[in-house]
Amino acid sequence: MNVLFDHQCFTGLAYGGVSRYFFDLMSSFSNRSDIDFELSLLLSNNEYLNKASFSNHFRYRQLAHVRNVNRAASLLNRLYSLQRVKAGRFDIFHPTYYHRYFLNSIGKKPFVLTFYDATSERYGKQYPDLGEGLYEAKKELMQRANRIISISEFSKQEIVRFFPVDPDKISVIPLGTNFQTSSLNQVKTSIDFPYLLYVGKRGLYKNFDKFFSAIRPVLNRHPDLHIVCAGGGTFTASEQASFQAAQLADRVHFRPITDDSLFSLYQNAQAFVFPSLNEGFGIPVLEAFSAGCPAILSDRSSLPEVAREAAVYFDPEEDESMANAVERVLTDSALRKDLRQKGTERLTHFSCDQTAQQTLEVYQSLV
């Protein structure tokens, strides 16, 4: 069997949950003899692909911050993927995001679509930057797809809620992580103070501003406690002003990350806090479990499904709920130990090889 993956999730971004998912999927497939695949990609600065033997793309790191260069790279990648689709030398096509560029060229070849979350449907009017206009693209792609993969039961229910799709067309395949094994060359953190760890983007539905507001009383009660924000871009002027106004600017820190440095940040944190209003799965939860980091999570969307009893939960729209959950974990060493043990056990229910096997079974059902 030969599968064609396209460029979409690997264009433009060095890191990201979707590109991590497809990188891990292809990495697992590369160790198997019952599937061959091609990644149609010319230009990318994706960091995961640095470790990949299955991609021969060109990097343009020095020009990555030039908007027109990224637009040109995206166009060239799309034209190349379209050429590979038209060539038809595959059994299954698996696009990596929601662009419809291939629909008029794929003919009768089957394709599988992975659905990640309905964040733009839930919050598109509130946060137009999320891509409210994606609805029509998602809708047409899911109607045309031969099979839909949902990364959680929660996301499957979101598909059924927002889109006219037959539930029987949807296969739920949870994600896994190779975070621990991909972080063998660990970078020791130079942080010498206790901290709460926040990972990834902070804007919009990620709810960091609400988290910071809620956590201020906890920081005041624990004057040695800091917040470390890993990845997600440097602090905006608005964020810095908020830190200054709270007189906490010297206790909130940004750290750029690689897999190696991120593993160390999880490993040394008092706890990982995830206040997001909406996640399709929540890979950072598995990353925290991999590093033995206690998890304090929003009780929304897929997060309780993924972590179950291996986390402490809070209402992400209630300051008191958030603060109480953090305070509880900070002041109870036995609870932190219990969360580490439960996180390690919960992690055994997820693996990239299992994700790959279940995905292969979906492909095989179509040929």
From TrEMBL:
Entries under SUPFAM superfamilies matching the protein: UDP-Glycosyltransferase/glycogen phosphorylase
Keyword annotations from UniProtKB, A to Z: Transferase
Domain Glycosyl transferase family residues, every copy: 192-345
Protein name as annotated: Glycosyltransferase family 4 protein
InterPro entries linked: Glyco_trans_1 (IPR001296), Glyco_trans_4-like_N (IPR028098)
Domain Glycosyltransferase subfamily 4-like N-terminal: 15-178
CDD domains in the cross-refs: GT4_MtfB-like (cd03809)
Any one GO biological process: lipopolysaccharide biosynthetic process
Family matches, as Pfam families: Glyco_transf_4, Glycos_transf_1
Source organism: Spirosoma agri
Domain of life: Bacteria
GO MF terms, alphabetically ordered: glycosyltransferase activity
